[in-house]
Each structure stands twice: as C-alpha cells, then as structure tokens.
Design a protein that fits this description.
The protein is of the alpha+beta class. Helix content is about 30%, strand content about 30%. The longest helix has 24 residues, at about 80-105.
C-alpha cells in the first residue's frame, strides 16, 4: 500500500490531503478477517517548536474506505498555519503506518480443523 500526500496553499490556507492507495490483496484479506483499522484525525498535536501545541476534534476514520483525509489550516487564523499543517501530516502518516503494521502482524491461530477419532 502507498500513502500519498498532496499539499496545497491557496489564499493563505494550507491544505493537506493524505491518501491511502494501492492496497494489496493480502491487506484487503486481512481487513476482511480482522476489520479495517481506524485512526483518529483529531487529538493534541505538538510541534518541534516549544510553543506549538494545538488540539483538533476527534474524528475516527477507516484507513482504506474513508481515504483521503483532509485538513485545512488558515494563516489568517493562526500565524503558524504552515507548521501546524506539517505536524498534522506527519502524525497522520505515522498513525496510518502503525495501523497497517499492526494489521499485518495479526496471525490467525483459530481457523483450522480438529479431528477426533474414537
């Protein structure tokens, strides 16, 4: 699978769109078996600058079927909108990566056949 990020600056608004795409059949089969992972697009985000910390409302999304994930940061509202956009993008890519790795780590130890001979 691939994560593709599109960044756009328009009239002082920094827009980030994170897309998940090119899912393998093995990943799709794991989602059928274990469920599609979710991530939260909200929460508290902290930048490298000591003063940058902000919170967005909780928004749970499915990583494949609800892609793309888009967030906008308006420089007329926040002077550090560009840094906020970068921090959000980095966090979302990390969450998706972690969710996919956790999905792939699943092992089905239940499915099988038992035979008892009497």
């Amino acid at each position: 699978m691939k994560i593709r990020v599109f960044k756009k600056l328009d009239n002082g608004v920094y827009q980030i769109s994170v897309h998940t795409m090119d899912w393998s059949e093995a990943d799709k089969a794991l989602m059928i078996k274990y469920g599609e992972p979710t991530i939260d697009l909200g929460g508290t985000f902290v930048g490298e600058s000591p003063y940058l910390e902000y919170t967005l409302s909780t928004k749970l999304v499915l990583i494949m079927s609800e892609s793309p994930f888009t967030q906008r940061f308006d420089s007329r509202d926040e002077i550090d909108a560009d840094e906020r956009a970068t921090v959000w993008k980095t966090a979302i890519v990390e969450l998706i990566t972690s969710a996919v790795l956790n999905l792939r780590a699943n092992a089905d130890t239940f499915t099988g056949e038992e035979v008892t001979t009497i």
